[in-house]
What does this fold into?
Amino acid sequence: MTRCTTMVSMRILLVEDDHRFARALGAALLRAGYAVDHAPTAQAALAAPAADLVLLDLGLPDADGTEVCRQLRERSDVGIIVLTARGEEHERVTGLRCGADDYVVKPFGFPELQARIEAVLRRARPRPGGVHVVGRLRIDLDQYRAYVDGEPVTL
Ligand code: CA
It folds into this structure.
C-alpha cells in the first residue's frame, strides 16, 4: 500500500482533557507518522509551540474549546479540526464559525480523521511552486518566469 502524501514532519497539537482518549489517539497519530504534542487544558493549548494542525476538544476543564479556537485563529492560520461529542447541528455551526476548518463528532474512526487531517493540511499549505495557467497567462513559480500566449514577459 502506498500513501499519497508524506506527513512525516507534520506536528499536531492534540487538545484533549480525556487522558485515555488522548493516549489512544496520540498513539494512532504517531503510528501514522505525525509528531504529537498533547495539551489537556485550554491554557496549555494556547501556550503550546506552534503546530501544523490542531485537534481541538470543545469540552475543556478551564475554558470552552470554541474560545481556544477563536484565540488560535486570531494569531495564525493553523489548521483546526474540532473533535467533540457535541453533534447537534447548531453546535457544529458554532464550532465552524469560531474558525475551525473541520468538525468531527465522536465517536469517529481513525481513517476518517486521518483523511480529514490530510485534507486540511493540503488546503493550509499549498505548494508554493509549480506552473499556474490563468487564461493566456502562464506563471512558472519554479523558474520565476511568466508567459502570455507562450511569449516570455519581462517582470
Ligand atoms: Ca473533554
Q: What stands out?
A: Confidence is low (pLDDT under 50) at residues 1-7.
